[in-house]
């Protein structure tokens, strides 16, 4: 904005001081000459919509660790589908395949926070790569047991070993927080990018797995996932310049679960996961009921696409106000938008349902980005990976719960009326936000309101 008392004509405008480490040339275009006498007002700065993302990846090492993280994260959307197809093809039982993958999910919920605690205590490179190697051996052992016709109990044991896989998204977010620890706006952009990356990987992963397992051979999806996981994690952990240092707390810190507001926030993640889990099962049942079961993946992909696009746009915006209040607004929007699939299902049209899910997905990324930002705000920096992994564990538990609830409602109601389940779960998550006792942006505990 021009000053009320302009400088002398011969004095050019001095640029505001910037941190040379993060400055990116060309993102903001400023009028070259602001000398007086012309009678013209200076041009307003024009900012590129991609400037926040260019700023992130201008930091040395960020592109390499992001590429490695994406390679390591893609298999997270592949392993379950690959295991189901592989086990069902060998044993002729989807019940066994489902039980094996459910066991792996339960093992992950138990082991993942401990793995994250080791990452916080000893560093990402020292823990993540060995933990990934153990998980990869579990997947390879699963392939060998399936191929050799080993007893069913060996499948459960092998798949449970994959629970040591580190939380790759959480480690990436920890790096962004370290690099931009004094820049909340940049951290917001980074969290938005990571959420969009999550949506992309979980949208492409199942499609890639199903293609490999059916076009090549049943074990192809698992073997490809192992290769991507190991290569991606090796590249990610090799970027030592961006790795956050191990922070030894001055005194013994309590578990992140004991932080004020953390338990209600984890309950919010659980209820939000129930939205996703129930939506997936109900959509598969709805497409099958309409005689187009293969279309379920495409329809669900539209929901993920809406979320990913919203996440990228969100990263270019700036917000003010407490995070807990923003989370309530996001969940209010999610609750409202989740009524659209219910209304669209009554038409009996899969294209209409797909459009409704595309719009409903717009609320997903803002909710997850804000929730993860709040997790970071509530968690002590020395246990940051553990706090974010607890959130992911709650989300996965909610997905499993939502899948079971969605299946029950589909069987006992109809696939159409079952779409009320994700809307109810979103409403429950909204109600649970009223119990969150967050911190403000200054790091001070917010007072509980009556």
Automatic annotation (TrEMBL):
Record bears the keyword Transmembrane helix = yes
Report the Gene3D superfamilies cross-referenced here.
Answer: MFS general substrate transporter like domains
Pfam families membership: MFS_1 (PF07690)
**GO molecular-function terms, A-Z:** transmembrane transporter activity
Q: Which domain of life is it from?
A: Bacteria
**Has keyword Membrane?**
yes
The portions of this protein that span the membrane are 70-89, 95-115, 127-146, 263-287, 293-315, 327-344, 350-375, 387-410, 416-434
List keywords of the entry alphabetically.
Answer: Membrane, Transmembrane, Transmembrane helix
Q: Which InterPro entries match?
A: MFS, MFS_trans_sf
Q: Which PANTHER family match?
A: MAJOR FACILITATOR SUPERFAMILY (MFS) PROFILE DOMAIN-CONTAINING PROTEIN, PTHR23542
**What protein does this entry describe?**
MFS transporter
